[in-house]
Amino acid sequence: MTVDIPSLILAIVLDFSVYLMVVVSLNVEIGLTGVPNFGRVLAYAGGAFVTGAIPGRILQLVYGVQGDYILNNPSVIAEINYKLLQQPLMALAVLILTLILAGTVGAALGYISSYPALRLREDYLGILLLIAGTSLVVVGITYPPIVGGTVGVQVPAVFNALLGQGPSLYYKISIVLLSFSLAMLILFHLISNSPMGRAFRAVRENEDLVGVLGRDIGVIRGKAMALGGFLAGVAGSLYAFYIGSVYAAAFDNLTWSFNPYLMLVLGGAGTSLGAVLGALVYSTLYHVIDLYKQTLSYYLHFDAVWLQYMLFGLILTLILIIRPQGIVVEKAKPLVKPRSKDEEKSTS
Amino acid sequence: MIDPLIINTIVYSSILGLSSLSLTLTYLTTKVPNFAQGVFLLLGSYVTFTVAEALKQNPYLSLPVAFLLGGAVALIQYYGVLLPLSTRGGSLVTQMVATLAFSILLYGGLNAYASYLDYVYNVQSRDVTLGFLDYNLGGGIRAVFLVSAVLAAAFILSLYLFLNKTRLGVSVRATVENPSLAESMGINTKLVKTISWFLSGGMASAAGSLYPLQFVFSPTLAYSILLSVFAGSVLGGLMSLFGGFIGGFIEGFIEKYVVTELSIYLSPVIGVSPFVINQYSTLVPLIVVAAVLLIAPNGIMGMRVKR
User: Fold this and answer.
1) pTM here?
2) Which of A183, A255, A324, B293 could serve as a FRET partner for B124 with CA atoms 20 to 30 Å apart?
3) Does B305 touch chain A (CB under 8 A)?
């Protein structure tokens, strides 16, 4: 069996970049602030739905394309794409505007969904976020005017217009996605070392202490949820542009809430390197098993996709028991240097 | 002749009530919301499917098997994952994540098994119902209607007797009230937790074993029904067992009955078919939980907790 190495690496890099963005957005909430967001898919799907619903309709108006946006979606988008190819600047403007809008919607969704439990204990917050997660997707599937219901919609091909069509298009897209994910990683690093990041970590470590010091934990958690939601919204939008269509039912809790959460825990919550490692391990494991799917299924007598779920679940369970902090352990950064043991002895 | 909607509602609400009850049971003794509860339920469903479709036996034979299997898997989860984690000082969030990770392992296994049934027995093992194999009692009533109601009543009655009339039951209640005090009084809290995990997994699986006899099921249900189970427990206040059952029952009642009735009345007003409105019933858990957390964070039973 010959393995097509370049396309395997391309597939891993594409998945890795998309997941890294989601994992970094979760890292702001889980890693820094300690908000157990089991419903990441909400803000992520929000960003993707914005991308499916808004730019196509705007471009339809701008170019005066006839036809109903949802019912005649393929022909409308085909005409838009044809005109976009001649206007890369328009494509760039649409991309930037959509990303900003998707991020804003993601931030709003993140804040609103956590609002009822912002001041409650983590388990209530986690349960609420879990249940809120799929709500937008249900609406998206049931109410076609947003993103075409069960049929889905296509998204204007801005990457084609910007990067040029051809066999190397997906290599170029992977570079764009990778740079976005690295930019988010740098942003996370900056936030983590800012006063706001320290406030986030203080909430994670000791809620009562933060309250005593006169800061409202609800406000700080809300900020983290909005920030994480913003990043997730942008990630969802980029994913929709890369895939080229939005299909509401594809945004399930397992793929976009639980798996990214577990990737972060695997790598090490609260660290940049941990997020990278978690996303990398998962995407590599997925594609390597995918490669030998046929052979494995033949020997196992069941679809090898599920082997990947079992392995991932098993690895994580073991990691959590053996090393609950994940592969990369966050270094404590105390503002005041703790006294060494010798000093304590001498003073007591 | 009973309205099919009422039968649907009673069966679904009984199953959900038992699941919320079992979720609350482990939450009370171990303080961890168990994300694998939905998979426990589906384990029972697949036991029924195996008994009825692969082995061609009476589907109700699966009830005791599902109870034991669910209990055993829950014990594996407690002894294999949560106990080692808590002795190493894992935080609440870490333990929640551990139940999630373990649930993915189980979910993968469940799907692999469904896929295996497909390969080996050549039967459709997803999006199916076994209603046609159930016994018809006449008047449009099938056995599952009675069995689900009786099962719920039997579990609640025996749990009530166990908790109030036996020494072990009293120690369970003591552990729930104050674990460290109970331990210092010589109560074996580890045994209490073992029992609660076994009962929790067993009850959820036994309830789930009835699900295929009334509804269409598939492994993906594990995570969608989990939301309803959590909502039921939160509605019940997460602090009383019977509150958990009532919360789950009300949650099921709203999802099946209230939404269907509402869709019939709303349909002419907003001009959307009742079928489409009915699909929004998946939003009920969110509305219930958000409302409970905003209005009465201690749930419906929060006002009168026995102390």
Assistant:
1) 0.92
2) A255
3) no
